[in-house]
Design brief:
about 300 residues, alpha/beta, Rossmann fold, eight-stranded mixed beta sheet, 8 helices, about 30% helix
Length: about 300
């Protein structure tokens, strides 16, 4: 796999444009990886690489009305019945190698894991060289309502392709962490795990509500995994969310939701390809993520 941004750009676009046209649940294991977005570099040698042994993983178009949404999908090679479903929601960088690898980790554990490319209508994050450019040109132009509709479409696709609709979990990182909180208001979702997702913020046309405002509407319990050294998500915003959940304690999902705060962990401490990675919190968070899904029947 090359770390050359131009080669990654071509590889990622080719990946997204060569989605499988299969109408069945079969996903070939021919996609070896889709590179890392240029704005997220340098990529560190510690990046975890999950192989394809025992699983199938690759690209698939998921219909959302008349639109075909690309997604990276991983699943066990063999299954005796319907599989629990995990929707993996990316950072602002979209579905690059780290997110694809995360789906493969879930597949190794028996899940049908789907990472939709929610940004595909707005553009390709890899065409921008900085995080600020991605935020303004891609993220800001991707409405929450559209993302949740895409997420519901991914769940519907999963049900038709070997997934168990009674066992649906959502997990996401950074931007995807915020989306995880919002997705927990959907009746299809049984549990969520939000990795350092923003909890408060300004209202915009595309982001009309923040997680702190929807605690009473949660239909699924959410585990929030956050770092005390995250300069972008101060702990006082976590306290605001805890207070909102407390006020909504008559709602069982809100009452069950909780946080795990890792001392001295920065933002993106699970992102093993970045210098923010912290092995201890990342591994503990992953274990707690899996236990959370098991506790709430998504396994």
């Amino acid at each position: 796999m090359s770390n050359d941004p131009m080669q990654n750009d071509l590889g990622r676009r080719d990946f997204m444009k060569t989605s499988l046209k299969a109408s069945t649940a079969t996903v070939t294991a021919g996609a070896l990886g889709i590179g890392f977005v240029a704005a997220s570099e340098p990529v560190l040698a510690q990046a975890i690489k999950t192989d394809f042994t025992g699983i199938k993983a690759g690209e698939q178009d998921i219909p959302v009305g008349s639109f075909n949404m690309p997604a990276y999908i991983s699943r066990p090679d063999k299954a005796s019945g319907p599989l629990p479903i995990i929707i993996v929601v990316s950072e602002i960088f979209g579905v690059h190698e780290y997110i694809a690898d995360t789906t493969r980790r879930f597949a190794k554990l028996g899940y049908l894991a789907i990472a939709p490319e929610f940004f595909t209508r707005a553009g390709d994050p890899n065409t921008f060289g900085t995080i600020a450019e991605i935020q303004s040109n891609i993220v800001a132009k991707t409405p929450d309502a559209q993302v949740l509709a895409d997420l519901k479409a991914a769940i519907a696709w999963a049900e038709k392709n070997g997934g168990d609709l009674k066992k649906v979990g959502v997990t996401g990182f950074c931007w995807g962490g915020r989306i995880t909180w919002l997705s927990a208001t959907l009746p299809e979702v049984k549990a969520g795990v939000a990795w350092y997702g923003r909890l408060v913020g300004d209202k915009t046309a595309n982001n009309p509500r923040q997680p702190v405002e929807i605690a009473a509407e949660l239909k699924a319990p959410v585990l929030g995994l956050y770092g005390s050294a995250d300069t972008g998500i101060p702990l006082d915003t976590v306290e605001q969310m805890k207070a909102a959940l407390g006020k909504a304690s008559s709602n069982p999902a809100a009452k069950a939701s909780k946080f795990e705060i890792y001392p001295d962990a920065p933002h993106a401490f699970h992102a093993d390809y970045r210098n923010t990675y912290r092995e201890g919190p990342a591994k503990d968070g992953w274990a707690k993520c899996l236990a959370w899904f098991k506790q709430y029947g998504v396994s």
